[in-house]
Amino acid sequence: MENLRLFVGTVCPFCKRVEKFIEDNKIEGVELVNIDENVQAREELIEKGGKRQVPALDLGDKIMYESLDIMNYLKTKGE
What we know:
It is built from 3 helices and 4 strands; from the N terminus they run E-H-E-H-E-E-H. The chain has helices at residues 13-24, 39-49, 67-78; strands spanning 4-8, 30-34, 56-58, 63-65.
């Protein structure tokens, strides 16, 4: 799988759900970036996607939101 960045928040339950999915399925190549701890990453997310919503998967040319969509994408890409 190509290297992807997943923007997450510290207390976001949907982010935790995606993080657990990545861990449980041993998905590699996904960098977790916490926007609560990294102001530059938060600004980048807003610039790229137009909003501060997390979880958000950076696909390079677009941002994918919604935990279920992200997990389905990662599952498909991992096969």
